[in-house]
Structure formats: C-alpha cells, structure tokens
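step=encode ok
step=design start
structure_in=
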C-alpha cells in the first residue's frame, strides 16, 4: 500500500501477472511506527502478512467511517477497490503476499454484486477464514519455489481464494440477518425516526446505520419482529396523536405526520387507534389523561 511512511522500503522478491491481476511477494521495512494512508485504488487489494502483525495494529476506512474510528487489523485483510485505508502499527520488517485483483475480471469469482456494508468492511480488516489463509500460503510457496505451469497454478488457487472470500463475506451478511441489528444501531434508528417521522426514509436510516437498505430491513425485522415500514408508520401516528392532544387541527397533524391528504390520514389513524382524528382530538382535550393513549 502506498502511504504516509515516506521512509518505508519495499523490495519485491517474486512477481507474477495472472489473468485477473498481479501477485507479488514483497518485503516491507518500516523504520518508524507504521502510519500509512492509502488512497483508494482501482483494484481490490488482498494481503497476507507472512510475519504476523502485532495485536495493536488497527485500521480505518476514513471516507466511510470518518477519520477517528479504528478497528483491529489482522495479518490477512482485503481492501475493496476505491476504499481509502488508514493503517497504524508497530515498527518492524514485514514479508507480505499482495494480490491486486481487477474487479471486472475477478467478478466471476469475487461476487460482482458485493455490497460493502459496515459489518463486511470490519470483517475485511481481519479475515479469519482458515481456508483462505491456507490458499494464500499455497500461493506464497509457489512463488518461492515455482514449478511446471506455475503461473496457471497460482491463478487457479487465487480464483479459489476469491470464491472463499465471497462465501466469507456472504456469511457475514447471513449472520447479521439471523441475529438482527446491534443495540447501538437500533438506538440510532429510533432517535432518527422519532425526531421527524414524516421525513424518515429507508435510505436515510441505512446510511446512518452503515448498511444497505436490504440488510437494514432484514436486520430490523429480526430484532424487532416487525418491518421497519410498520415502525415508521407507528411513529407518524404517535406524532399525530401528540399534536392532536395539544390542540392542533386534523389537517395540521396530517401534514406534519407526512400524509398528503387528510382522508388518507384519517383511514390510517382509525386503523391504528380505533378513533377518527377528530374524535381523538376532542377526547384528549376533554380528558387530559387520554393523552397517554399514544
């Protein structure tokens, strides 16, 4: 990776060009503590450190997470194409196996439709798959001691590693869908919707939570036992209830809750509360205790 350690020395010990990228074994020497900021490249960057990283190695995707969030970085990681990375670690000499993968040409094995959600990005910094690690070591051994049809063998093994990578990242998505959303994400979503339920959108919540819309919807349902659309609709009716109880007109409450017409609002309100908006307003104004209904 290119970076801000201007004194870093790199020696390429072996290199081969394959059909969907480049593979090289290199030695990196950092005379000062590692502090590299790499700009996003056009290729996926898959790397295995043959010299294990120290436990305090961390990294950040600054364009996605912001500059201050760092997560643990393992000795096997993937930097997706177009993603800047800020890495920090201890000074040392590293021998690394680096694979630059062309996204278009590797799409047959590395999932062209991969969505780089926040859990997947975190998983990419510390790939824990034993199968992928073993395949990377096989590539390294072939680079160090090439035999008959060595380039073809490396390409086939790397293609298998890409398949395993796709399975690894898809499993992260499957696990997320099964266990639902983390509590901190649910709190962010709740605060976002309650603040202005009429303006809440799935896209806005997905961006806030660092997930795709599809993953957000599945995770929310797994956590809450209902759809996120139903949750937004409920919060809109709750907002309308509060406004009506405080004396707002039916039309004011309808528009504030995001309904384009009072008639649509009345239908949804009665379905949720059992009252028409006007009945609810009059009942609340006559009996303040009735405000507790919503």
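sequence_out=
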């Amino acid at each position: 990776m290119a970076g801000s350690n201007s004194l870093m020395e790199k020696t390429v010990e072996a290199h081969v060009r394959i059909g969907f990228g480049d593979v090289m074994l290199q030695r990196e020497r950092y005379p000062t503590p590692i502090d590299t900021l790499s700009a996003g490249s056009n290729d996926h960057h898959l790397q295995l450190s043959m010299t294990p990283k120290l436990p305090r190695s961390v990294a950040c995707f600054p364009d996605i997470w912001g500059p201050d969030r760092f997560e643990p970085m393992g000795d096997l990681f993937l930097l997706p194409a177009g993603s800047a990375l800020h890495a920090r670690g201890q000074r040392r000499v590293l021998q690394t196996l680096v694979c630059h993968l062309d996204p278009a040409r590797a799409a047959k094995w590395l999932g062209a439709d991969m969505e780089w959600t926040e859990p997947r990005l975190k998983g990419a910094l510390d790939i824990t798959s034993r199968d992928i690690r073993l395949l990377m070591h096989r590539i390294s051994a072939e680079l160090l001691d090439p035999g008959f049809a060595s380039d073809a063998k490396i390409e086939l093994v790397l293609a298998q590693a890409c398949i395993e990578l796709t399975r690894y990242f898809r499993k992260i998505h499957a696990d997320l869908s099964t266990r639902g959303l983390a509590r901190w994400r649910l709190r962010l979503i709740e605060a976002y919707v309650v603040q202005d339920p009429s303006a809440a959108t799935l896209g806005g919540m997905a961006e806030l939570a660092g997930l795709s819309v599809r993953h957000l919807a599945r995770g929310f349902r797994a956590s809450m036992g209902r759809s996120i659309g139903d949750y937004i609709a409920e919060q809109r009716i709750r907002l309308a209830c509060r406004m009506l109880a405080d004396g707002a007109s039916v039309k004011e409450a309808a528009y504030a809750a995001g309904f384009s017409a009072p008639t649509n609002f009345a239908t949804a309100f009665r379905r949720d509360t059992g009252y028409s908006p006007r009945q609810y307003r009059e009942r609340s104004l006559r009996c303040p205790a009735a405000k507790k209904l919503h």
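step=design ok
step=annotate ok -> The longest strand covers residues 9-18.
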